Amino acid sequence: MIRLLNASGCLDALAAPDVARALDVFVTKTVTPLPREGNPPVRIAETEHGMLNSIGLQNPGLERFVDDHLPRLRELGVPLWVSVGGFRAGDYAEGCQALAAEPGIEAVELNVSCPNVEEAADTVAQLVAAARAATPLPLYVKLSPAVPDIAELARAAEAAGADGLTLVNTIRGLALDGALRPRLARAVGGYSGPALKPVALAAVHACSRATVLPIVGVGGVMNGRDALEFVAVGANAIALGTVLFTDPDAPGRIRAELAAEAAALGFADPAAARGVAHSDVPDPVGTRH
Questions:
Q1: Please, what is the average pLDDT of the chain?
Q2: pTM of the predicted model as reported, rounded to 2 decimal places
Q3: Residue 17 lies in a domain
Q4: What is the count of structural domains for the chain?
């Protein structure tokens, strides 16, 4: 079975509970130890082939999340993954330790591609190791594609104790208005949407060859064919992002389209297509299946 999730920050489950219940897993917005107000508006801008966001990790902080938000999320009856972020290893450890004793959490997603976190293999290993020591919960590590070698980061995460990967986070982008001024208050934001898909597919393809970790593929999934392509390059699950802003029926639609697309190509189940895009592709030096 190929599970459907939401990309962290792309769905408010308490405001749209029916959409959340249509998913196989709900992933929370990233929570940090202390509350964050986020960036000033304008924080979201549509583009021709996607959207930009510069939310700035706005969240209520760990204490309020656990006391107020988490109990209401449990009532949805959907498996929960909590996205944890921060600016140093201690922040990730603090978040994971606080969540370890909370019932109803299936996994923790480590947003190691947060702003101000250096995206290097040693840093990723340090953050994952700190989180691993703080919780027995499964840890999925969310990586940015804006690095020289994402497979190196995946291997570092695996060696430090990660249980899975989420690929990918947004990439930096900028859009101008009619007066040639940046449309976002902070000028640059995270770019997502259909144009991100080839970048995300390449990341999943590389990391599935470099590690044995299960992978959640995310980036530009708008329909069942998009989802099937992520499975073909090695994804075990699919996360929906930008599409949820425009189509609240996307989970059910894409699930049905995924099954139909797989059947049309002769696969009894979409999961049977996993990895077929690796056939006849030489292994890069130093990788493994």
A1: 95
A2: 0.95
A3: yes
A4: 1
**CB-based contacts of 34, cutoff 8 Å, min separation 6:** 61, 62
Q: Pick the catalytic residue: 10, 96, 114, 207?
A: 114
- The CA distance from 19 to 21, in Å, is 5
Orientation angle between helical segments 150-159 and 197-210, nearest 10 degrees: 50
Model confidence at 286: pLDDT above 90: no
| CA–CA dist 69, 92 (Å, integer) | 19
**Within a domain: residue 46?**
no
Question: Given this model, what pLDDT does residue 73 score?
Answer: 98
Q: Does residue 113 sit within a domain?
A: yes
Amino acid at residue number 199: V
Confidence tier at 284 by pLDDT (50, 70, 90): low
Is 35 within a domain? Answer: yes
Domain range spanning residue 198?
Answer: 3-40+55-172+191-278
Q: Give the CA radius of gyration of the chain.
A: 18
Active site residue 114: yes
